[in-house]
């Protein structure tokens, strides 16, 4: 029995990831080693590449599963170019372990740091691979590598990764220490926990038609299992197909499960419609138009995050634009989960992250410009991908797991009014004249065009502490009459009678619910 482990090769462009994948592998897929003509022309990886090697399973696995005698490492070669970050994120979500590939001459670069962040938030195990050591001067190579390895460990001290994570110094071109790297991977990889009892979800990354056979969809099963003759759904075209055959790296199989890299053949459909997407059990996933997540800031993102702005949201292999609304919890909650029945305060802006910043309980409502397909606990990653790809800055802003979502297309009318997200509002005016000890005329509290009627009966507070109620409108413009049930204090009366009317401020405080017109004015 063979168990498949997916290992991602991530790092900055031109760090030698594809050459390393070739050195580690003995089996190549149709999408391995930059076979794409554009990749060959430009000399860089443009899409995910897949290759594999089969080795003896670790003896320690026998106690978990005695039937397992082989382990197949499927290497996911991710692009390194900054402009392909969404492909990198998609590739990282299907892996069990991350090989962070670093150029021995250049050390950590911008996309190296972004890959560390992606590995952190997806909680992947990390092995660092310093490549191209053959390009270092032989006389100073040992000293240079020792210095670089020390620097890499210090970098990890500021992450969730163990600073003592393994580092392998290799040359993929000359195959120096490649066997040691394979042995290191084998010694550290744990027996995978595969969830095969849940409905099928398969991330497809390549799709093509073969005349006379059907359409081939290649991808990774991220949950559940699949077998020949199963019915699968292609949600993007809302059609179902029966699985005619399944292959794993050119080897025919009757079934496959979570973690396996497979190619499945189904009856013909337009392959261009599913170049990158999802296959599922029929009826399992439906379009999600909006979702709510708890915001986990990415500390390297040095820009403010603003409500009503737009960010790129990556879910699995897909990336869409979304409008962002931020809000914070106003009650203590032990589990940190969003509850539509609780009240939340609108947040205009989160300032740029700092290392000393405390983690507030902030949530984000994401309104997708294009509906997404995602499992209910999917990880969503927000990024500003329209930043200059050549700039030396992290574009990943925050991430979170989906805690609320809606399938309703008209959610803004039917669902959002249930959200109790409010803004604190303050209107200020002053007493224009005193009627008696209990009544006064207030002006400048409202604009001349404002609707004063909706504020009748609302409480106001003077800067001197007295509480009053707006009793009626006064005149044709912006004035109102305020009644003070307990009367005005002697000092306040003296101030007003002395002609210093504007020195006593009248304040109207209330909460305005941003999604519900009926609850737009609450004290």
From TrEMBL:
Q: Name one GO molecular function term.
A: GTP binding
What lineage does the source organism belong to?
A: Eukaryota, Metazoa, Ecdysozoa, Arthropoda, Hexapoda
Q: Which GO terms describe its biological process?
A: selenocysteine incorporation
Q: Keywords for this entry?
A: Elongation factor, Protein biosynthesis
NCBIfam families xrefs: small_GTP
Q: Where is the Tr-type G domain?
A: 2-194
Superkingdom of the source?
A: Eukaryota
Q: What is this protein called?
A: Selenocysteine-specific elongation factor
User: Per its UniProt record, what InterPro entries does this chain match?
Assistant: eEFSec_C, eEFSec_III, EF-Tu_GTPase, EFTu-like_2, P-loop_NTPase, Small_GTP-bd, T_Tr_GTP-bd_dom, Transl_B-barrel_sf
